[in-house]
Amino acid sequence: MNLKIAVLSGDGIGPEVILQAKKALYAVGVVYEHDFIFEDALIGAVAIDKTGSPLPEQTLNLCLNTDAVLFGAIGDPKYDSDSNAKIRPEQGLLKLRKELGLFANIRPLKPFKGLLDVSPLKREIVEGVDFIIYRELTAGIYFGEKKLNEAGTVASDLCEYTEEEISRIAHLAFQSAQKRRKKLTLVDMANVLETSRLWRKVVKNISASYPDVTLDFLFTDNAAKQIISNPKQFDVVLTGNLFGDILSDEASVITGSIGVLASTSLGEKNVLFEPVHGSYPHAKGRNIANPFASILSAAMLLEHFGLNEEAKKVYEGVEKAIEYNVVTIDLNPDSKFGTNEVGEFVSNFILNKDDLMYFNNDNVHLGQSTIV
Question: Which positions fall inside the Isopropylmalate dehydrogenase-like domain (predicted)?
Answer without folding.
Answer: 4-346
